[in-house]
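Field: COMPLEX_INPUT
Field: COMPONENT_COUNT = two
Field: RESIDUE_TOTAL = 548
Field: MODE = joint
Values follow.
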Amino acid sequence: MNRKPIFSLRGVEYAYPGAPSRALCGLDLEIAEGEWVALVGANGSGKSTLAKICNALLTPTQGDCFVMGRNTRDETCVPDIRRAVSLVFQNPEDQIVASVVEEDVAFGPENLGLPSHEIRVRVDRALEMAGLASCRLKGSFSLSGGQKQRLALAGALAMQPAALILDESTSMLDPEGRQSFLSCLGSLKSAGMTIVQITHRMEEAIQSDRVVVIDSGRSVWDGTPGDFFGGAYVRWNFEEPPDVSLYRELLSRGLLPDGTLPDVGAMLDALCLS
Amino acid sequence: MQFLSGISLGQFIPGESFLHGLDPRCKIISTFILLSGLFMASKAPDFALWAIFLVCLSAMSRIPLGTILKSARPVLFLVAITVLLNIFWTPGREVFRAGFLRVTAEGLVMAFEMGMRLFFLVSFASMLMMTTSPMAFSDGLERLFSPLAKVGFPASEMAVMMTIALRFIPTLFEETDRILKAQVSRGADFDSGGLLKRARSFIPVLVPLFILVFKRAENLAIAMESRCYVPGARRTRLNPLAWGRRDTGAVSGLVAFISLVVLLDRTFLRHFSL
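Field: COMPLEX_OUTPUT
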């Protein structure tokens, strides 16, 4: 299947003003429509900078970033790029603009100058998708951590973007909150949305179509979750998913009947194919 | 150490009461009329009527009276200073003397009047903020100031600034509380010593608080930008303001009440001393 690229980054470099080294050093990456890509890498490897470049919040110091064929350097394209790409940050409290849930979700569509009835439709739909329909009139700051993160997601979805970038958006959630957030992402992916998920959690990377390892501002590995967990994750010092660790531990203590270690890569490939 | 729990100054309490449903412009205008009316009250029966009015408003807003009165707590210090200044520094007929301190009958009357006015002023202003979401409040202000936009007044930017400032109130309280607790857990003492020592002990709270708030403000600015906010650009609204009959009725009712209080004050209560 030959899908159109949503993001095309060619030799992208970025240096923060006054920083001794570059955050991105000639990064090349292409992400196609409808893909769910997990960006993994150590802290400071350049993942968040990459997310901001893809949303035209930062302009590359070298190289080019194209979003749906539009160059982020072109000021006239920036509004269209931001409409097409929504960003959800790590801390939801840093994204809450309004004190009432529905007003916060409406903030983006209001900036687009849409008529109120259309804003209402978008807000209702986004709240429904994020599972917050019953909280529309609640205070934004009275929500739980998981609900706040879903509020941030609803705010992003109300923009009806073609692509969603999640910058460690599940890091502050408890297991239950994370699971419901991920199932929401699963539905979005099924609806054809492109998802770029920056994460440190390997169990989240499993759910993606593709894993890209970012190291020192470069894309150093790119492949399927099956290939990644089949061996590459060891090379780049990532921890295996906790479920796999638990399986190995149980096996090593003789608490599981079969003594053969499974081929994790093959299992994941089978999962992805199914 | 008494932490900052329970402070409700300026915080919106979501609801669907009659007061919540009024147009924010109606509430802003009414609050100004109310405050002007308060300065026409000077006798105890006048303030008794104002107290009854406050109870009625509390019922109409479905916000418990205790919550409204609690909002006046942070300014009790200001009320106390005003009362003391008026008691001791108002010239007139002396009723009591202790050293250089001289209490006059006029001073006592003035202290009572000013204390009551300040108390009601804060209570009514809090009621405005408790029943109006920051977004609706800033929309109301924007519309009221919109005629000035013709002469270059940035009404729209001012409205967003106001929303953000109000949105940061709970964040500021939360962060201050968190830092206070963190410093106390590390042995900081905010309760003992003289005024200077106590003031100095707050430096380890203020420094991280300012750093944190600036960081969060920067993050929020990035999040707003990513949601297509452009300062000065035309924005539409999820809930466009609409002045209705009940808004006209509310303002008329308020004017009638103030006229009644003033009439009573100038006729039946003319010879009432306090």
